[in-house]
Write a structure and sequence with these properties.
Structural class: mainly alpha
Strand content: under 5%
Number of strands: 0
Largest sheet: none
Number of helices: 6
Distance between the termini: 31 Å
Order of helices and strands: HHHHHH
Helix content: over 70%
Length: 123
């Protein structure tokens, strides 16, 4: 059923987490857009908190839609899985995604260059 594809789907999501996490802070520094933001009297803390809220929101929406989809497929296909187990499985996957996202976001905030944050957070 749906969870036969969970491993490839989570692998793709983790790759996206690495790419997005790198582009949130270190990518802005590489492109020079962080310097532009800081000269416009926007504090770095404000930029960082905005990027953090975006990252968390994107993960919650992604895994929320995945949970709703799995519950709908389970209901209409009459697969017989317990709803509680499906929700717990998706919540556990969200927790793992938060852990990887936190590591990548930390590396993106600590290092100024994308290659250094990718090498640290993505490995």
């Amino acid at each position: 059923m749906f969870y036969g594809m969970l491993v490839p789907a989570l692998s793709a999501i983790f790759i996206i987490i690495i790419i997005v996490g790198n582009k949130l802070l270190a990518g802005q520094i590489d492109r020079g857009s962080m310097a532009y933001l800081l000269t416009a009297l926007v504090r770095r803390l404000t930029v960082t908190l905005t990027q953090t809220l975006y990252f968390i929101g994107a993960l919650v929406v992604t895994f929320g839609s995945m949970t709703v989809t799995s519950l709908l497929v389970n209901h209409y296909a009459e697969a017989g899985f317990a709803k509680k187990i499906l929700v717990e499985l998706n919540f556990g996957a969200l927790a793992i995604a938060f852990a990887f996202a936190g590591i990548m976001f930390l590396a993106s905030g600590v290092f100024n260059l994308s290659k250094l944050s990718l090498g640290t957070g993505g490995s």
